[in-house]
Design a protein that fits this description.
With 842 residues, the chain is an alpha+beta fold. The two termini are 40 Å apart.
Length: 842
């Protein structure tokens, strides 16, 4: 009965329009829109990757091998199942261009293709010539096409001679578009393409050198990809062969987009929490204007249930409107801005209305609206009719009845559970919600302390009327201190945490690593070249340190004679091939944490020393056996020790090390790191490149710069999400200022009656805004620094220092935001006529 009566009352009151609920709708709509937009863009990219999967992969399916070409048996298996097969070798090399006595050098990712390439898509060149014609070359030299940034760096013109290893090539055209580029993963150098047979005399594909081979398959229509994958894994999985197909043509890109999208949705939920503060404040303010209506209903016999449903249904309808507006904005904006967004994306995207992300955003918005409106609604029904006639909604008891507390808890749990489910990152979700909850608790306590301090200080500020009035207003019962500190403070907290995390990551990469990182990585050093290579560096006074190690690559296929994934799940060590080395002695820069190292003359069954941290994550222990496939051969060894491996120094580090006799006879090359003075780096590279043209040099600074660019993009996307949170907080500020406009007008009228000038009244309003902004900014700064430290320390596992420029900007932003909103609503109180205002209150 109470529900039916409440519905009738709600329907009548809704006829009055949306007055008083504009900020409510804006806060809810903006939070939902941000989440819907992020989800829609992610869905568009995923749809693009799925639609263009074959093009991105370069075929309907692919078999990949590490450091070897397919055996005749493997190639025959592929030929029997495909209409066409394309063979590609992919590796890093140095592009060398001689100009007189000087030689220009640059690192490139070299792709050696056959005549069938590309099976899918089209290679676009400038000038527009067919790829086969460009690779034919000119003047008796095979051809090469190269990416634009590499062409610019080497100042190439068509016909110029470029050397790879010991083979000369004629530069023929600039590579404009490579259809399968997105599926190739992270590369340290710009792309160059040559014909595979042209590399036979280059010395770059010797046994043991670092290269991958990809066999792209054009399959007959209707092929069963699941069955083919199962057959390939069963037949070649134990020999290092890896299958991919067009259903996931660019798995690295897809995984990155999925994780970044999930993270941005969690940032969007922070914005929704800020909007929830505004929603709660708007509901409280609205109910305060309805005290006489509620009092009348209570005296006419309306029970608690009727009152609750009357206003709960109104809020539900308005929440539905706000969520709908947010869905229209979040779902429509990516479609409208599709050309602009697509031009900034390195992968294809199909923009359309995707119901999955919209449903997810609507679910979040519904839970958030319930969480932040149940409390004020429940408190309203607890107030007695007599107190309502005295406009004393604030005198209701602080906590609602237990039933409502349980309902709020269930809504919070449902929101957290939904976020964890949809994002697929339960740990990050819990950390995010823990951070939001912690920030809200800190900000709530700060608001209480700020009000108490303002009341105390107002009594001691005699002789400074504007300051005293500002402090009294902040500490008074009818103030917006709580809403301002919560909304603005939470938005600034998110922005501050993002700023601190971004600053510390940049500092770790650009500031700390270069002090300890090597100047160069040199790879593909042949065993017979090592004595001469080391001799040249030992005689160089600019070289401070040289580390070197034999280098093989292997795939862990079994643990204790069981499939590795059954034991260790999807741990990253099992996701592909890993570096394997051997050593007689324990390296000087590491130490054993458990077990013993083998003797120098040990020749028994294979023994393994494994990285301690990764072993703990995978559940390995001393005595476990690992089967590693190296160049198609299975080697089973026993773990005899665990050791520390520090990858943060950018030096040589191996997950797996074995005794030398275990790898006897396996063809391999060496890798080396060179630590040198900056002025010695150029001469070192020139000297080694002349002596050993097959060696590839990777400048560590260039790799660090690439990572920095990637992090900049992530930080930029995150900052935009945090900015949306801050915008929501600004809207809440506007709502709080608008809600308190009547109180400010009445306050100004009293002050004018007592002789205060307009200038002093305006000064008191400005001081009030500055003090509130300063308080919110300082508390947000503390919360942001704490959050940044937690993420840097426990998630990123980096050092942490406070980035003060970013920190001070946050405080300044809080002051500016509150001052602007305070002055925005200052005109009406300053210009109010005391007689008219006081007569209206009489």
């Amino acid at each position: 009965m109470s529900l039916r009566q409440g519905a009738r009352i709600a329907r009548r009151e809704l006829r009055g329009g949306l007055r008083g609920f504009r900020i409510f709708l804006a806060c809810l709509a903006l939070g939902v829109a941000a989440i819907a937009a992020v989800g829609s863009v992610r869905a568009a990219i995923e749809a693009g990757l799925a639609a263009e999967g074959a093009t991105l992969l370069g075929g309907d399916a692919e078999m990949q091998f590490t450091y070897r070409f397919a055996t005749p048996e493997e190639r025959a298996w592929m030929d029997a199942r495909a209409d066409a097969v394309s063979e590609i070798a992919d590796f890093r090399s140095m592009a060398n261009v001689a100009r007189g006595t000087e030689t220009e050098r640059a690192l490139t990712q070299l792709k050696a293709v056959d005549d069938a390439y590309p099976l899918k898509g089209e290679v676009v060149l400038d000038p527009p010539v067919p790829l086969a014609e460009a690779l034919d070359g000119t003047n008796g030299l095979p051809g090469v096409v190269m990416a634009l940034n590499l062409v610019d760096r080497l100042a190439l013109e068509p016909g110029d001679v470029v050397r790879f290893g010991t083979q000369d090539f004629a530069f023929m055209a600039t590579l404009v578009n490579e259809p399968d580029d997105a599926g190739g993963g992270f590369g340290l150098g710009p792309r160059s393409i040559v014909r595979r047979t042209a590399l036979d005399a280059s010395g770059l594909l010797e046994p043991g050198t670092l290269f991958d081979t990809h066999y792209r398959l054009a399959l007959p229509s209707g092929s069963d990809l699941d069955a083919l994958k199962a057959a390939a894994d069963d037949r070649f999985g134990s020999t290092g062969g890896r299958w991919r197909d067009a259903r996931n043509g660019a798995p690295g890109v897809a995984a990155f987009v999925d994780r970044l999208g999930a993270f941005l949705v969690l940032v969007g939920l922070s914005g929704l929490a800020v909007g929830g503060v505004g929603v709660s404040a708007a509901v409280s303010a609205y109910l305060s204007t309805k005290t006489s209506v509620i009092a009348t209903l209570r005296t006419l016999g309306a029970g608690r249930g009727t009152i609750f449903w009357a206003y709960a249904l109104q809020i539900a309808v308005l929440s539905a409107i706000g969520i709908t507006i947010g869905l229209l904005l979040g779902g429509g904006a990516p479609v409208v801005l599709a050309p602009l967004i697509a031009s900034q994306l390195p992968v294809p995207a199909v923009f359309a209305v995707y119901w999955g992300p919209l449903g997810e955003a609507a679910l979040y918005g519904t839970f958030a609206a319930a969480i932040f409106t149940l409390w004020p609604l429940a408190r309203a029904e607890e107030v007695r009719a007599a107190t309502l006639f005295r406009d004393a909604l604030d005198r209701a008891r602080l906590l609602p009845r237990p039933a409502y507390l349980v309902a709020i808890f269930v809504a919070v749990a449902a929101l957290v559970g939904s976020a964890a489910w949809f994002s697929g990152t339960a740990t990050l979700t819990l950390w995010t919600f823990g951070g939001i909850l912690g920030a809200l608790v800190i900000l709530g306590l700060a608001a209480v302390v700020l009000r108490w301090s303002a009341r105390r200080l107002s009594r001691r500020s005699r002789g400074r009327p504007p300051l005293r009035w500002a402090l009294a207003s902040i500490g008074g019962p009818l103030n917006a201190t709580g809403s301002v500190v919560l909304s603005l403070g939470l938005g600034l907290s998110v922005l501050a945490a993002v700023g601190q995390i971004d600053g510390n990551l940049r500092q770790a990469i650009q500031g700390e690593l270069p002090d300890v990182a090597p100047s160069y990585f040199f790879v593909d050093i042949q065993k017979d070249q090592m004595p001469g290579y080391l001799g040249r560096l030992e005689d160089n006074p600019g070289v401070t340190r040289v580390d070197s190690a034999p280098m093989l690559r292997g795939i862990i296929t079994r643990i204790n004679d069981r499939p590795a994934v059954e034991v260790a799940g999807d741990h990253w060590v099992l996701s592909g091939d890993r570096g394997v080395t051997y050593s007689t002695e324990l390296p000087d820069n590491t130490r054993l944490t458990e077990g013993t190292w083998w003797d120098a003359d040990y020749t028994g069954p294979p023994l393994i020393s494994f990285a301690a941290e990764e072993a703990e994550e995978m559940g390995l222990k001393i005595g476990d056996t690992l089967t590693i496939n190296i160049l198609g051969r299975d080697i089973t060894g026993t773990i005899s020790s665990f050791r520390e491996v520090d990858f943060s120094t950018a030096g040589i580090g191996f997950i797996l090390s074995m005794n030398p006799s275990a790898l006897a006879g396996a063809p391999h090359s060496f890798i080396s790191t060179v630590y040198a003075d900056a002025e010695a780096e150029g001469p070192i590279l020139r000297d080694l490149a002349r002596a050993y043209p097959n060696i590839t040099a990777i400048r560590v600074r260039d790799a660090i710069d690439q990572v920095s660019v990637l992090l900049s993009g992530i930080a930029s996307a995150t900052s935009w999400g945090a900015a949306a949170t801050l915008l929501t907080g600004f809207l809440v500020l506007i709502g709080a200022s608008a809600a308190g406009l009547g109180a400010r007008i009445y306050e100004a009228a009293i002050l004018k009656t007592l002789g205060a000038t307009r200038r002093r009244i305006l000064a008191s309003f400005a001081l009030r805004a500055v003090l509130l902004g300063l308080g919110a900014g300082l508390v947000a700064l503390a919360a942001g620094i704490l959050g940044g430290w937690a993420v840097s320390r426990f998630v990123m596992e980096t050092g942490y220092t406070v980035i003060w420029p970013s920190a001070l900007a946050i405080v300044a932003g809080g002051v500016v935001a509150t001052t602007l909103t305070g002055l925005l609503f200052a005109r009406a109180p300053v210009e109010a006529r005391p007689a008219r205002v006081l007569r209206g209150r009489d």
